[in-house]
Amino acid sequence: MAPRVRPVRPSDEQAWAELYAGYRAFYRLPDDPDAVAATWRWVSGGEHGLLGLVAVDDDDRPVGLANLRRFARPSTATIGLYLDDLFTAPTARGAGVATALLHEAAAVAAAEGASVVRWITAQDNAAARRVYDAVATATPWVTYDLAPGSPRD
Fold first, then answer.
1. What is the greatest pairwise CA distance in the chain?
2. Is-contact 133 41, C-beta < 8 A?
3. For residues 67 and 40, what is the distance between their CA atoms, to the nearest angstrom?
4. Which segments of the protein form a coiled coil according to its record (predicted)?
């Protein structure tokens, strides 16, 4: 049976925070409880256009998360959903959690009339890319980051 996916609830805070801390650790980000707490406030409160989804087990305990936000697409004059974060608890991997979260993201996009669900991942994240390749199309685009206040040279 596929995991059930639903929006985050206030009662999910502790389990969500553990998952999000695991996500941050996976991407070798420093342990930062303040960043986790701020992100929870944004996701649970819908701030910055964010929508938090969780995949839950039979006991309604979150075992995966997806954080989405709306973004304007001027080239198509449409709105898309951007998947900022997707993470499955190590104990739930291989059970269809990520796929269920991605399918729900697509359903939300369809219900909202969004034109796309878009995300990035690390090039060497082979396990995640196998899941992504099964449900989405990889694009030829390359991602860049520019630090605020960077000189033009």
1. 55
2. no
3. 10
4. none
Q: Domain of 53: which CATH number?
A: 3.40.630.30
pTM for the complete prediction?
0.93
The SS3 of residue 15 is helix
Q: Is the pLDDT of residue 60 over 90?
A: yes
| Residues sharing a CB contact under 8 Å with residue 12, sequence separation 6 or more, in sequence order | 44, 54, 62
Query: What average pLDDT does the chain have?
Result: 95
Task: Residue 10: give the domain boundaries.
Answer: 4-135
- Find the helix or strand (DSSP H, E) in which 86 lies: strand 78-88
User: Which of 57, 84, 69, 64 is CA-nearest to residue 19?
Assistant: 64
Report the C-alpha dihedral over residues 25, 30, 32, 38, rounded to 10 degrees. Answer: -80
pLDDT in tens, 108-150: 999 999 999 999 999 999 999 999 999 999 999 999 988 999 7
